[in-house]
Amino acid sequence: MSVLRYFDVVLVLVAAPIMLLIGVPASGYLVGVASWIILRAAGVAVERYSAAARDPRREVALRLGYLLGRLFALALAVVLVRRADGRDAGLAALVVIVFAFTIQLVLSVLTRPRSR
C-alpha cells in the first residue's frame, strides 16, 4: 500500500531518463520533480502533525494552510524556472507538476478509506 501511496513520485523519477533523452529541458523537468518531491515530503509531515492535533479546527487550518502554500510554491517554481531558462523549461516544469498532481489525486480517490 505504501508504494501505491507514493506512486506519483516513483513515476516522475522513473520517467526522468526517458524525458531527458527525448529532449525535454532538463532544468524545467528537474525543477518540477524537485519541487514536487519536496512538497510531497512536507505534506507527509503536515498530515502526521495535523492528525495528532486534538482540535478539529486546528487540523483543518493546518491542512488548508499546507494546500494553499503548496499551490503557491509550485506556481512560484514554474514562474522562476520560466524566467531563468525560458518558456520551454517553464512548460516542462508545469507539465511534470500537473501530471504528478493528477496521479496523486486519482490514487487518493482509489485508496481512501471507505465507510460502510
What would you say this structure looks like, in words?
This protein has 116 residues and is an all-alpha fold. It has one domain (2-108). The protein is 86% helix and 0% strand. The protein is built from 5 helices and no strands.
Largest sheet: none
Order of helices and strands: HHHHH
Name the average pLDDT: 90
What percentage of amino acids are in beta strands?
Answer: under 5%
Cα distance, first to last residue? 20 Å
Using only CA atoms, what is the Rg? 16 Å
What are the defining features of this structure?
116 residues, single chain, 86% helix, mainly alpha
Summarize the structure.
By secondary structure, the chain is mostly helical. It has helices spanning 2-5, 7-21, 26-51, 56-85, 87-111. The longest helix is centred in the middle third of the chain and has 30 residues, at 56-85.
Q: What is the element layout, followed by pairings?
A:
Elements: H1 2-5, H2 7-21, H3 26-51, H4 56-85, H5 87-111
Helix pairs in contact: 2-3, 2-5, 3-4, 3-5, 4-5
